[in-house]
Amino acid sequence: MARNKYHKQCEFCEAKATYIDYKNIKALIPFTTKYSKIVPKYYSGVCLRHQKMLARAIKRARFMALITFVK
Amino acid sequence: MTSNEELGKYELMLILMPDLSSDDTKKELKKVKKLIKDSTGEIYHEDIWDIRDLAYTIKKQDKGYYIIYYFTLEEPRNLVEMEKELLLNNIILRHMVVKSPKGYELKKLSDLEYTEGDRRTHRVDKDSGSKSGTEVKKVQKPKDEVKTEEVAPKIVKEEKKKDLKEKKEEKEEEAPKEEKKTMDISDLDSQLESLLDDPDINIKL
User: A23 touching B, CB under 8 A?
Assistant: First the structure.
């Protein structure tokens, strides 16, 4: 599989993250596209567990006007 | 009463109107603190982000006063009524209550803020881990800019003063003083050139 060829471990797993903070914009913005959409996990290589946490954090940050909904 | 470990920890993020005076914001925040206390809450930390740009306009405001309260609640049922009152307050643009996870460590604002270039240097801010060297550099850069900016206006003032002096001296027509002035002016020129050579400063002539 092509995906396995370029497979790398999820960055949050490497950091052993148990929670992704919605206030930590620095960590969230790299996982958004230039139109501020959430990057799918097959591009970013984030595991499912952390992708769900990420999505929740990004949505919270959007609501509090820390990140734009649409650019 | 349950023991402290069992109490749920929450965090409340507020965005207030930016154009209030500091007294008014304090009053408003006192009200919110009372609200939390009335609903059997206890604030153990507060984090002030101050006025910052919103990512999009809310109620025709481009900026907002951010503040975060970290508190424990004995009876989580009271949250519903608490949020109702927060919604009714016109001065609060947005609010959000989030249950903070177990073992959550408080972070400083400087660790969280995003600056351009983060996307390239490193992506994941590792959980309360060691800070990379890039962050330190970022902190230092703005300081230098501030210093240079402070220097520039002073020189302008000096120039103005000298202009005034020159006019006076032209009237007096005294030779020795003029020599001193020329020396000063040459010094100024060298200073200005060094400033202009700085790549960090953009001065449009």
Answer: yes
